[in-house]
Structure formats: C-alpha cells, structure tokens
Amino acid sequence: MSKEGNVAVRLGLFVLVGTVLLVLGLYLLGSKRGLFSSTITVSAEFRQVGGLRPGNNVRYAGINVGTVERLSIMNDSTVRVDIALREDQAAHIRSNAIVSIGSDGLMGNKLMNIEPGDGPGEPVTDGSMLHTSIPLDTDAMLETLDRTNENLAAITSDLRQLAERLNRPGSVLDLFSDTVLAAQLRGSLSELNASAQAAQSATEQANALIADVRGGKGALGTLIGDPVAEQQVKGLLQQLQLLSDSLSSAAGEVERFSTGLNDPKGLAHALTQDTIVASDVRRSLANLEQGSELLNENLKALQRNWFFRRYFREKEKDLKRDGSPKD
Amino acid sequence: MVRGTAAKVTSVLRDAGELMAFAGRFFQQAFHKRFEWREFFRQCYINGTLTLPLVGITAFIMGLVLTVQSRPTLERFGAASMLPAMVAISVVREIAPVITAIIGAGKIGSSMGAELGSMKVTEQIDAMEVSGTNPFRYLVVTRVWSTTLMIPVLMVISDAIAIWATWIGVNIKDDVSWGLFYRQVFESLEFSDFLPALIKSYFFGFAIGIVGCYRGYGTEKGTEGVGQAAHSAVVTASLLIFILDLMAVQVTDILGLN
Amino acid sequence: MDAQTSLEHAATGITDERVVEVRGLRKAFGSNVVLDGFDLDLRRGENLMVLGKSGSGKSVLIKCIMRLLQADAGTIRVLGQDVLTLDQEALDRLRVRIGFLFQSSALYDSMTVEENLEFPLRRHWITRDPKQTDALVDEVLNAVGLPQTRRMYPSELSGGMKRRIGLARTLILKPEVVLYDEPTTGLDPITGKEIVELILKLQRAYNTSSIIISHDLNVAKLAANRIIVLHEGRNHVEGSYADLRASNDPVVRSFFIFM
Q: Interface pTM (ipTM) of the complex?
C-alpha cells in the first residue's frame, strides 16, 4: 500500500507542477496586457502614423510606459492614437510632453516616443491630449531636401538680378575709378553667376530624386538598393556642398565690396551715389548670407539622416587623407 | 507491381477505417459511469510522471541547441538580443508540443502496443472479460484518457524546461539575468502562441493513446505480433501527430491566430 | 448409460444433473468452419475431456461456452441459463459460477500474485473487505501449495507455478463448473502430472464439474471420466480412456502414436 501511496504522491506532484506552470504562464501572458497595474488613456493626433499598430510599445525616456491601445481615423488628415499609460509611470509625464513615432532599430517594430516638453506642466491625466512632432523618416528627409531646393531657387533668382543690374552698361561699376576693385567685383559676380547655375542644376536633380522617392520606390529601395540612385544622391550632395562653399566665398567677396560701399570714407561710397543700387546690393547680400546659412543647415540635417551618414563619414575620411579641409 | 500497390493502398485504407471504428468504440465507452479510476490513475502515473524524465531531457537539449544554433544567424542581423524571444516562440509554438508528442509516441505508444499486445496473445484480456471486467473500458478507455490528459501536462513542463535551457544557452555567450530573460520571453509571447499549442497537444495525446491501444488490442499471431504492434504503434502515432500538426496550423491560420 | 457406470458415478459423486448442455454448435472464422454441429453434455461432478488435435477447435468450443467467442448457431446452456442470449449483467453473474483456466495461465503481468488473485473478487464485487480477501487468497494459495509467492510478480514464476496460480485465481470464486484449456501444454511431463493431480484434488475439495480440453492422453488417463474426440468440428467418438485405448478408429489411434 505504501508503494501505491508513493505512486499517488508522485502523480499528484507531476500534475501539480504542470498545473502551476500552466497557471503561471497564463498569468504572465495576461499580465503584460496591463494586468500589472491599472492604466490611464491619453491621446495624440497625427497626420499619419507610419505603420503603427495597436500593441506597439510607448516609451518615455527609453522606458516602456505603455502600449498603443487604439488607432482611429478622425478625418482625412487626422489619425488619433489612444495610448494606455501605466498609471504609476504617468506621474512623470507632463501634459506638454511631445509624442513622436519612431522605430525600434533597423528591423524593429514601430514605437511611440514621449519626450518632455519645454517648461513645467501638469502631469497627464486620463483623457489628456498630447502634442505631436512630425516623424523623422523618409518624409522628413524629403521635406529637408525640398526646403533646400526652395532656398536655392530664391538665392539663384536674387543672384541673377543682382548680377544683371551690376553688369548693365552705365551701371554703378562704370563709375569706379578703382579698376582693381571693379575687376574684383566683376570676378565675384561671374562666380556668383556660376554658383547660381550650379544651384539650378542641383535643384533640378534634387527634384528628380524627390519625385522618384515620392513615386513609390521607397527611400530604402531608391537610395540603398539602386546603385545608380545612390550615385545620383552622392553627386547631388557633392554639388550641394560645392555650391555652399562657393556661395560662401562669393558672399565673402561681395561683403568686402559692400563694406567699401558703406564706409563713408571709402572710395566706392563716394563714387556710388546711386542709393537704389546700394540697397539692392545690400538686400542681395543679406539673402546670400541667409541662403548660404540655410544651405549649410540643410546639409547638416541631411548628414544626421542615417542613410547619408555613411557617405559623409567616407567623405570625412577622404578629406583627412587629402589634408585639405574645405572650411 | 500494380496489384501490390493496390493491395497496399487497400490495406492502409482498411487500417485507417478500423482505427476510426476503434476510436468510435472509445467514444461510446469513454463516458461510461463505471469508470476505472484506479487503472486510470496508474496509467497517468506511467504515461505522465514516468515519461517526464525522457521528455524533460529532450526539451532541455532542444532549447539549448536551438539557442546556440540560432545565435550566429541573429548576430549577423545584429539582432542577438532577439534570441530569447525567437527561441521562446519556436519552443512554445512548435518544438515543445511536437517533441513531447513524438517522444511520447515512442515511449508510451510502443509500451502500450507491446503491453496490450502481449495481454491479448496471452489471453489476459479474455481473463479480464471472464473476471467481470469490460477489458475495453479497463484497458483502452483509461489509457486513452490518460495520454489525452497527460501529454498537455508534459508539454507545459517541457515548455518551462526548454525556456530554462534557452536561458542557459543565451548565457553561454551573454550575461542575461533570469528576470530580464523571462520578461523578454513573455514580452514576445502571446496567448495566440500558447493556446493553439495547448489545444493541439490534447489531440496529440489522444492520437498516441488511441493508436497504441488499437495496435495492441488488435494483436494477432502470437509473440511476433507483439513486436509488430509495438513498432507499428510508434510509426502510426508519429505520422498521425505530424498530420494533426499540419491540420492544426491550417486551422489556426483560418481562425486568424497565426 | 448402463447400471455399472451409474454405480461408478455414484461412487465418484457424479449426478445426472446436466450443468452444461451444448447442441449443434457451429462456429466459423470467415470461410474456415471450426465447429460444425457439436454436441456436449456435462453432468455435475463429472470430468469430461474433449480430445482433439491442435487447431481442431477445442479452445473455440470452451470459449463459446464462456461466450468469449460468439457462436454462429446452436444452443449453449450452462447451469440452466442460455448463454447466447444473456445480457451483460446476467452473463457476468453466470461467469462467477464458471471457472476458466487459460492455456497460458493469463496472469496479469503488471500485478503481483496477490493482486492477480484479488482481481476477480473485486471485479465481481464478491468482496472488497481486506480481511476477507486476505483469507480467501491465503486459502487458494495454500490449496495450490504456493503461499510464498504472494508478493511476487508473474515474471518471477516458472511455467508450472504460473499454471498453479492461474488455477488458484480460477478457484477463488468457488466456481461450480471449471473449463480447463490445455492445462498441461507447455509443461514438462512431471509438472504436467503434478498439475493434473492438483486439478483432481481441488476438484474433489471444491466439488466442481470440469471440461478439460487437451491433446494430452496422460491427462485423459489420469483425470477423465469420459472423453469426447473432436474431429472436423463434430463429435467423432465418445467413451472412457479404456474404450479409446481399445478402439480401432484411425483418428483415435493417431492420438496413441507415442504411447
């Protein structure tokens, strides 16, 4: 009978272990769906959510604080995302926090990032609406390129006008007795002209590229998969870089000229009574500076973008090898 | 040649039909009020507790090997951190249920085929019949119920063992605490990974029991038939398990649980 | 039945009450007709032997009587009940009164000798009281002379011991009729003789009537009051051992070939 009792105990133990594991497993599976703690729901509105799905993680300062609960289309340009935030974490999140959509690594799932906003704010409560920032993805990159193009176009037309006005027969330049200065200015102007042309062609290329990407080939497909496109992008970026350099050098020269214009004791000032031309030059100059600045900014933005990073890194290496940094 | 093939096909079909009839007989008797509890518990002990060491060792090895072998591939994609999740999903969805069932078919199926086979040829089944016992209820119903209910328990335990082995496998190269590991594992697992596996393991258990009993109960031709019964019980049960697995994946697919 | 045999029977306790009556029994397996109109009467207290070659359908006969096999045609009456038409419950009740010693002893391998002996008691709901079962187990183990095997498993026993335990398991229900299926087959002659002597001893002690199926003439010589030779599914010859010994029938003679 003791043997039979032994058997019963061992069978009981076996079934008990199995059942406990089963219950534990089911509990753990269930608990990550928010059974750990109660949650509050906050919302954010986006134009588009880039493939976000219910169940995706929501992070604050890199920590999972909740999950995407529901996605609902509010109207033709608004998607509302409801987020289930763990209540114990919600205290740290202010109502002025900014929500963005990102992804968890190269192959990873989409996720939502909550970043603290500027200044103090109330902690979020159930039903709070959070601010959003536009996701930095392909679209963001294209936007950057677009803006660069617009700026280039504006600069180009300004430069054209200035150059034409200055080069007109009987313009202020003819009054210059200082032939050296006049020659210098002429040289700068022709440089500006060349830059303008270069800018135009760069703009065209960039537009073609943007059309390609927007045409559905997808950023990864166009830029990484296709060697021709990759070459195009490299060429385009090179051109933009050169353009930026030449614009800044041209701007420098024009500035020197303009210093002369503004100096009441300067020769040029004396010679140019044509105030319209002077203000024209000044305005162009301001545009030029702004343009070159914007261009540099855009280039930096592009450099930050992950898939251009490699290209820029290589370029840096080349520069170091040549020992002639361009700045 | 053609006639030989035709005869083979006919015999396979007859076999399948008889197995169906046997299963039908089981269901007729399965809920009879005179249930042989003692024998049922004894069978649960044999088919559950005594099968655990074998299934446990296999689950441990499968978890470990799968982890070690998956690492290089995942590392190539820079996704070595996904190792626990990936192995856990394979284990829970497929490895644990199928390995448990196949090992069970090998151990339980063969011993059932041989046991019932030798009982048949040495007239022990007849002896039961004359001792006021319905041998089908006493031998078959208890055995089929025990495998149907014990294989899922074995599967759950081998899930746990294989996941534990995965943790060990991950820690061969990494240093991951158990707390982090099991959180990663359960983060990646869903009910839809586990429930279909649990449900299909009941079917696997039933298949092992019914085939083992069918082969053993139908034994003829003396001692030679006993070996044949044991052997064909394993082969038929294993095949049936894979067929059921195929059906299970289709069904879960249709139900949208994949 | 003449006066002399009647006297003989009275001396051995044989009465005229028929405990088993088989008429026109027919059993076929597919196209293989094994029994084809077999008749048999067993009187209370009698040892009836059915002699036949291997595969002549002897075992089929007693399995039909026990309804382990379903007869195709004919009638079987055991202890006044029609075996072929009984429902399961009545059949189980009848089976308590009929013992069956299987050719291979049919001990349950997974149980000890004690559990083997208790099995029919428990299953037939005779008794589940531990004291009572203990007493009954002791009694039959002593009767077959193997009290030391109580805690052993069948695999630890020799063929002769298994046969004795099988006999003990048959007798524990105190049956009125015992059917012996080849009681000496597979045993050496000495052990076989011991078993037959044991059967006779126990038959007297338990006051049973028996049908013994065998092809072993030693059994016939030692145990049988009456012998029926089964040939081609029918009763071929009937008589005492001495009658058969003196017979010129070729079928009967073939059994004496080694004697």
A: 0.83
